[in-house]
Amino acid sequence: MDPELEAFVALFPPATLDDPITERANFAKLAASVPRPDTSGMVVEDRTAPGEPAVPVRIYRPYEALGAIVWLHGGGWVMGDRETEHPWAARLAEASGAVVISVEYRLAPENPFPAAFDDVYTVLNWAADHAGELGVSPDRIAIGGHSAGGGLAAATALRARDEGGPRICFQLLNQPGLDDRLESWSARRFTDTPWMNRAKAAAMWRYYLDGRPAPSPYAAPSRATDLAGLPPAYVASAELCPNRDENIDYAVRLLRAGVSVELHQWPGTFHGSQAILSAEVSRRQIEELGAVLRRALAG
């Protein structure tokens, strides 16, 4: 493990998810401890995307935007909201020059699949329909997210392709949750890694899928048999993360399907460790997400 990250491991809460309600409160406290980002170079606005139900979003609009990204927070489908994601969504907008649309999708176990998935698709359609209002071109809208949000982003790209939905120009997938089967080497072996381990990953999938196997690739994108025709992608994985091998495998399968992919496996990191901003590797991870998105939207 990277020594700058290892120094913080003892301060992290146990990697468990026995009580989602309690863990939501703990997650919010942890997010509140992150240094506040500088938002002086952008307009930040809370809106609602109309739908059944309507979906709350927070929009980060740099003064000269290259494009937009529908951005999806992590938290295992059971934790997180616009406020917990604020430090990361704002930093992404600053680093990329993109309009970041941070989505507050419905959470499991109260709202299992497909609730969050449908919320994201609602926001994607709303963003495409309101591209002019957002100050961007409708063909310069990306989708992305971290962890569970990365899985939702990949699933939404599949749905947009299959249903002829809004054109997504890029996928930004950071340590995405893609495979409910947890059969990869890393998913089977990483039982005591910080923040995320096999037991916690299994609990997240159980809550999200209401205790059932994924009914379709829209629930677990690794189950998709055809990845052709999807948008170009950036996939980042953490070395000491149960999701690592499914991330790498998905990237390779995209490549074999003819999709352009940039894959970065970050050595010495664990799931979500980029939140430790004092570590040099964390700062590089965040800067790279912004730089990759900037290039994709300007290309």
Provide a short characterization of the protein structure:
It comes from Amycolatopsis oliviviridis. It is built from ten helices and eight strands.
Topology of helices and strands:
Elements: H1 3-6, H2 20-32, E1 42-49, E2 55-62, E3 68-72, H3 82-96, E4 99-103, H4 115-129, H5 131-134, E5 141-146, H6 148-163, E6 171-174, H7 185-189, H8 198-208, E7 233-240, H9 244-256, E8 261-270, H10 280-298
Parallel strand pairs: 3-4, 3-5, 5-6, 6-7, 7-8
Antiparallel strand pairs: 1-2, 2-4
Notable traits:
single chain, 299 residues, alpha/beta, Rossmann fold, eight-stranded mixed beta sheet, 38% helix
Description of the structure:
With 299 residues, the chain is of the alpha/beta class. It has one domain: Alpha/Beta hydrolase fold, catalytic domain (Rossmann fold). 38% of the residues lie in helices and 18% in strands. It is built from 10 helices and 8 strands. It has helices at residues 3-6, 20-32, 82-96, 115-129, 131-134, 148-163, 185-189, 198-208, 244-256, 280-298, and strands at residues 42-49, 55-62, 68-72, 99-103, 141-146, 171-174, 233-240, 261-270. Strands 1-2-4-3-5-6-7-8 form an 8-stranded mixed β-sheet, with helices on both faces. Helix 4 packs across helix 6. The chain is globular. The N and C termini lie far apart (35 Å). The model has no long low-confidence stretch (mean pLDDT 97). Keywords: Hydrolase. It comes from Amycolatopsis oliviviridis. Residues 69-273 form the Alpha/beta hydrolase fold-3 domain. This is Esterase.
